[in-house]
Amino acid sequence: CIPDRTNLCSNLSLATQAVQTKSNSSSAIPFSLETLTLDGYFSFENTHHAAKDFGNTNHFHPSVILYPKSVSDIFSTIKHIFNMGSTSALTVAARGHGHSIQGQSQAHQGVVIYMQSLKDPRIKIHTGELPFVDVSGGELWINILHETLKYGLSPMSWTDYLYLSVGGTLSNAGISGQAFHHGPQINNVYQLEVVTGKGEVVTCSEKQNADLFHGVLGGLGQFGIITRARISLGPAPKMVKWIRVLYSEFSIFSRDQEHLISMENSFDYIEGLVIINRTGLLNNWRSSFNPKDPLQASQFNSDGKILYCLEMAIYFNPDENNIMNQKTESLLSELSYIPSTLFLSEVSYMDFLNRVHLSEIKLRAKGLWEVPHPWLNLLIPKSKISNFAQEVFGNILKDNSNGPILIYPVNKSKYVYQILLSIPISDLRYIFSTSLLSYCRWNNKTSFVTPDEDIFYLVAFLSSAMPSSTGKDGLEHIMTQNQKILNFCAAADLGIKQYLPHYHTQEEWRDHFGPHWELFVQRKSTYDPLAILAPGQRIFRKAI
Length: 544
Ligand code: FAD
Fold this sequence. Notes:
There is one protein chain. The protein is α+β, with helices and mostly antiparallel strands. Helices cover 25% and strands 25% of the residues. A nine-stranded antiparallel sheet has the order 15-17-13-16-14-19-22-18-23. It has a five-stranded antiparallel sheet with strand order 6-7-11-9-10. A four-stranded mixed sheet has the order 2-3-5-4, covered by helices on one side. A hairpin with a 4-residue loop joins strand 9 and strand 10 (201-205). It is globular. Flavin-adenine dinucleotide is lined by residues 53-54, 93-100, 104-105, 115, 137, 159-161, 164-165, 167-169, 171-176, 220-221, 225-226, 356, 500, 534, 536-537. Its cofactor is FAD.
């Protein structure tokens, strides 16, 4: 703990080991929980599935799973464990959809709360000038989309994949191609209901219990369990024009991406991909996109090259087809991509947002979904991205056949010029007085930490490993490559942050939070002083 806060930290000890410490199993057996009266129930059997996540490399078995039907089930369980104090080793992990990578939603010999069984509140939509939806913390984003679309409304900020829970993504950030415009998901929340590590139920927002509100958003589940969230909504479009183009020069690709995210009237979604040494790339695109120039596209050769794909989307309704096409053409005319690689498609808003689910279905059919996923997600400051790209793409990584590599910039604030005054000095000439306005899309009071610069890139190495392989598609090889990338970032002092962070030592967590570490520890002491919650993040360890 930090020296000047030793009193706050008497009950918190920091995890310094890679694996969770095995607690005294007799004190961990949670039979006393059976005395609680619940609306839902505890299951002491068939707990193995809670020892698995999307990463498929960490397996910590809980002693019991709580299937809550009400918030009271959650707070009475936590209160009970809290009241046992340090005589019990029991910890509690909320499990949203278990799509973590390194066991973050698991609790070794502890209690896993299966958040999806909490259906209160049902998805409740409020229309009006500032529409919003109230949902349970265990609700999946795909269900929210289905419901809100019935009212012509939709959340504005998304993740690429929608079978994730509200509590799970709000505990991280929720970043996708809309974040440059609307901020991450944690910036699109009006209010939360949280059960703290002391078993208290607290409603919080920017104005009410703001410290807990900010702490929980991006707080890696450390300060409370989100049982309800109020999420802002906006008008939903019916259709999406979805566009891909290629670049061979990283500097031109990133210049165009940064240009697009800085415009006031840009695309609605901007992402990117790195494609290393892929044969027949454009041919594969034809299953979902149409080439603008089929002949030229068929002559493009992707073999042996490092290519950068800029992916953009523009939302529209069918009666706005002409305006949308004009805007698309105008925006594309500002870009310097390889002309023969322009591919376009039109899909429904639902199909666009739910696009990764299609890949999931195909991979599941081939038995390739439930394999190990040694993912690495990094946030890299804009000033260091070309240095990073030069070393990593083509040097550390010779190809990306193990899975996609996403790369796109986001900006914490947006700067636009506002015309304050225009004075006519002749028939056609005016003097303009302007001022620089900054719109902050990222609330820097939340627990989520980003690089220091205003613009940074999300680079996501989304690898899948073949379970028994010892070759280039094996877990060990991919993890070694990930480590090489991290080592390079450290040696070159790039000032990166991990997204969906995973660390082994106290120093690494301190480094990750930087100047925010002290506040993080203080919030832990305030809201979860016994370190009961989210042990799978391995930041704090319950003292017994
Ligand atoms: P879980 O794995 O269940 O939980 C994650 C953490 O949050 C755990 O520590 C858990 O204890 C805690 N937690 C869960 N529910 C609650 C709650 N109600 N209250 C408090 N704490 C809670 N992320 C992005 O930002 N953008 C993307 O585009 C994106 N795409 C993805 C695509 C796929 C295929 C996958 C597998 C993941 C993707 N992610 C993305 C990462 C994802 O957002 C996180 O892994 C997220 O935590 C998963 O949500 P979950 O419901 O499965 O969380």
